[in-house]
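Shipment paperwork, digital attachment
Item: protein structure file
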Amino acid sequence: PQVDGQITEIFVKSGDTIKAGAPVMQIDPLKQEAAVSGQEAARAAQVANVQLAQTQYDRVKQLYDTGVIARMILDQTQAALDNAKEQLKNLDQQLSAQQVQLRYYKVVAPVDGIIGDIPVRVGDRITPSSLLTTMDRPGNLELYVNVPIEHSRELKMGQRVQLLDTNGAVLAESRVDFIAPQVSSDTQSILAKATFDNSSGS
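Attachment content:
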């Protein structure tokens, strides 16, 4: 997260496949919404001030053009108008920043992927250092096979490897692309690896 707050909704569960930009969690936005509303009200008041300053300037300019008032009064009115416009510009920038901040209260997926573990729950208070969840992107999967030492002579680079389901049907095929140079003393086996394409996420 990029803000502090309390989680009010979690839109996903572990294992869900989601698209980039899809909502993942909602952090309570009430305080920030109030800040945005306050900025909008301040901006509306300043718009009225700019309109008033513009009207006053237009009147003074007409009087100056006819020679009724001194240049100093026109300059003062111009300065008041410029100041009102500058204040409005500053309020616009502050409002824009507050609106950007408000968007951070809805956490969205940065990329397409699969939701991993979600260690937080609704009601938890989080900070920008909190881990909300993880995301995996479909890609290659690496299979680790611990081959008993008595079968080590049968193990060869490029050897065919089949991945089976619980019924014995072949899900995918690959080849051994790594064989550990040493026997594991813990398991008395040799580690072999095979890489399977999983770009479809199946």
